[in-house]
Amino acid sequence: MGLQGHEALALLELEQLRGWARDLGFSQIGISGVDLAQAEPGLQAWLAAGFHGSMHYMAAHGMKRARPAELVPGTVSVITARMDYLPRTAPDGWQRIEFERLQRPLDAGVSLYARGRDYHKVLRARLQKLADRVAAAVGPFGHRVFTDSAPVLEVELATRSGLGWRGRHTLTLARDAGSTFFLGEIFIDLALPESEPAQAHCGACTACLDACPTGAIVAPYRLDARRCISYLTIEHDGPIPEEMRPLLGNRIYGCDDCQLACPWNKFAQRATLPDFDVRPHFEAPTLLALWGWGEAEFLSRTEGSPIRRIGFDRWQRNLAVALGNALRAGLEEGDARAVAAALQGRRESASELVRRHIDWALPPAAVTP
Asked: One of 118, 132, 148, 277 is an active-site residue; which one?
């Protein structure tokens, strides 16, 4: 334990903390308390509805997600941090450009956040460096850093600490940054003054609900993960339900549609770190080029990327669905033949999971036992 109460505050001012955070690539810092009791009924209702799908860890942690002091005993304050990820080279009109990509059946849709380095690695290391700076100023103190890596109500903490408000799509929105940013937290045993909470500015807008291709945003501020393309292509490890497959279009890793439609993202900030620069093979990826990767190439090209964690089987599963959707989109004859041949060429060596999706993707006459 280090200094407590007014002693710590005398040495650690919020503006000083923000300066250190900016030096580390963070765009915004806030301080939240740990009483999240008002969020518990909503969390309980979401779990009771089964909206977490097969993410059983969500239910296993119970209300600990809304009780920081239970997750990390001794926690009395939470430092929240925002880090922008929109690639530095993203052109003006990037939302329109991304929507246009989704209309080209043979292009591959990969979420913007996943085209560079794994954010877990980037944020965790820099949050720890920020904690080290605090310790150098006030002495050793109890803390743990998190970034989408533990049962933490990140959006609730971000809202309470002034980083933004919860949009109708359930993501955090900021007036000067839209929603293209990651969140991270440092749970600490120092009592720091809380920053002003953010006020909501969605008004009557429903653009995110209207844009969701699967109707996963079942009500404002309520997401059914079982229908969410990000869940289906990343978290879900079994067969993608057949009724959902046509709705995926050419999206093979995640989905940005609700963010592309959000008016606030015209204010999205470019990343300050090169970590989120787009890797060359994700600049203009096509389904056939990615389908051509073997497992060794997949592992090599996704090293240090968030994509690698889904593994080669899920990667091929997602691609098979997208290629099937391309065939159903009415491709030119040459393209259709190339897609069918590529799918058939992988069928014999594919895992059972992938083969089931290949068989769905191919026209019945093209499937050879």
From this structure: 148
C-alpha span between 215 and 243 (Å, rounded): 13
The letter for the amino acid at 208 is: C
**What 3-state DSSP class applies to 235?**
helix
pLDDT in tens, 163-184: 999 999 999 999 999 999 999 9
Residue linked to tokens 């879900």: 236
Known catalytic residue at 148: yes
- The pLDDT of 78-86, averaged and rounded, is 97
28-32/77-84 β-pairing: antiparallel
- pTM of the predicted model as reported, rounded to 2 decimal places: 0.92
| Contact of 211 with 258, CB cutoff 8 Å | yes
CA distances from 234 to 109, 242, 258, 324, 349 (A): 13, 17, 17, 19, 23
- For residue 43, is pLDDT > 80? no
Q: Where are the domains of the chain?
A: 5-360
